[in-house]
Amino acid sequence: MGNANDKKQIWKPGNMLYPVPAVMVSCADREGRKNIITVAWTGTICSEPAMVSISVRPERYSYDMIRKTKEFVINLTTKDLTYATDWCGVKSGRDVDKFKEMKLTAAKGNQLLYAPIIVESPVNIECKVIETAELGSHTMFIAEVLDVMVSEKYMNESGKFELNKLGLVAYSHGEYFALGEKIGKFGYSVKK
Predict the structure, then answer these.
(1) Is 68 helix (H, G, I), strand (E, B) or coil?
(2) Distance (Å, rounded) from C-alpha 132 to C-alpha 116?
(3) Per-residue pLDDT for 163 more than 70?
(4) What is the pTM of this model?
């Protein structure tokens, strides 16, 4: 039973599943025009094989690039990349070169023909679209992860990648947050 002061309001259906990752998705067309789209509607959907999804509005500049090449890269964002992440989410690649304006470096990844990685991102997830689902306001691109590229400067002495020391960023209800205090680890609730 809840507290009597915990009255609930009923709202219309909406996306209140927060926080979510705020990532920069890089893509390109077959002619070499490249772009960055900021995506918060993204997530892991399968472990074996490794698969992810992103959801993109069809009117976005990146939509046709991804639909036609079936490629994109999810680039994780850090506190230092938050300004660029936000900027790439509000500006259109039809009007500006986001790599140039945000002083980000596009480089060839390991697996993909068209979509570049963002060098400044500490983690680049190269993805190949295997299914497209038109859902309404957004189209979901379901993709297999071909590989993950990680910055060696975040490897510790014993060769472990220190993902949780990157200063990763989450998006929650219109705001960005740096991930903070560790409060437990998987299985801690049942550990003796």
Answers:
(1) helix
(2) 21
(3) yes
(4) 0.94
